[in-house]
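User: Structure please.
Assistant: Input sequence and predicted structure:
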Amino acid sequence: MAVYYLDTSALVKRYALEDGTTWIIGFRTDWQEQYQIVEVSAGVADRAMALAEQHGLRGYDAVHLAAALELQAVRQSMELSPLTFVSADDGQLRAAIAEGLLVENPNLYS
């Protein structure tokens, strides 16, 4: 089963009509079954600060990437398939690729 981490630039496409909306809506089933909320721990915040410095990311872009990397590490430890990081921000996607994540840009699907 595919697992996706959507940052807010991708998730907003579910609610606002713009490039990539149709692709994002294709994931729609039920809000409570679709999303898992990830709390921002001190470790995630520390990693976000390091990612922001290393890749020149804005605050929440770095937090999203740090949270996705944390989830990816958990999935790897459980020998589960990798997650795909979804964002409409090219700089954030470049950073995610540099950090070893699979990525998708919903803007490529009009």
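Residues 44 and 66 are 6 Å apart (CA to CA).
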